[in-house]
Amino acid sequence: MALMPKRVKYRKSQKGRVKGNATRGNYVSFGDYGLQTLESGKISAQTIEAGRVVASQAVKGGGKIYIRIFPHKSVTAIPAETRMGKGKGEVEYWAAVVRPGTILYEVSGLSEEAAREMFARVAHKMPVTCRFVTRRPTI
Amino acid sequence: MADAVKFRVEPRDPKKNVGTGTRSARKLRAQGLVPAVVYGHKLAVTPIAVARDVVHQMIKTPGHLADLEIGGTTETVMIRDVQWDHLGREVLHLDFARVNLEEVIETEVNIDFRGTPAGVAEGGSLEILVHTLSVNCKAGSIPESIRVEVGHLKVDEGLHVRDLALPADVTVNADADLLLAHVVTRAAEASTAEGAGEGPSQPEVIKPERKEKEKEG
Description:
Chain A is α+β, with helices and mostly antiparallel strands.
């Protein structure tokens, strides 16, 4: 099953706008390599799961995958051929809001070549342009 | 032990809006320079500008020591902080701390895990939990990395800070029982990942608690 919060204060949230760049969660923390988004947007829980499945198929149990984003935001929709009004629609899916710089996935225990190949496959599933990143030098 | 890199840097006017401030920093970056400051040893803060290629060379050098030639004087410094852009491509600003090669400083050092654990052949996988350690050592003898051999680790075995073989004048600022890496079974790893996804189709809504007055009424 796709990711979603266990408990929420309010089921439905306002749409909002995704502004600015990522100021946290924008560097590789847990693994050796990561996939970073270059665009802002919303990534649905289904897409996050699809990326995880592709990644785990590619690593074949060889490495450890870290998912760095979580779908906290509910997205509602009104059914087709419905008259306007009568309130806000029902929750359609849950999504993670990402800004340029956000690390989506990380992996450890793989060679750089294998990690690049794996993240290329994952990037195909993503609705935002992504790039491959490595750990920042230790200061 | 890492050697200090020698290079010349340009001093900046410490006056606000002349040599420092947002606008002048942006102008410097457009010219291929990185704004930086030198501080420490109870001396005045010196704003400087460093060439971008020198910065990248220095960041890659283990120990991050440098001999800066600022307006005729040479100062030994080490990188204290780096400010990156949101994508981690460009360095926006650098902090240099004045150091004496004989003084004891606190710095971060990489852990270099060597070898393939014996547990990997038994179906386990190595999970690294800590990549860097904070150490106290002399500025002139910062180790490039702390080398650790993990070849002997079997499944469900781990490596702690107490197991590290450190140079004589280096001490670690971490709990001796801190787990650095361990070999886990892949089956256990997969079950925890799958278990996280199971649950109800909709999240539970936290209902606001009624006020005491309403309860009484």
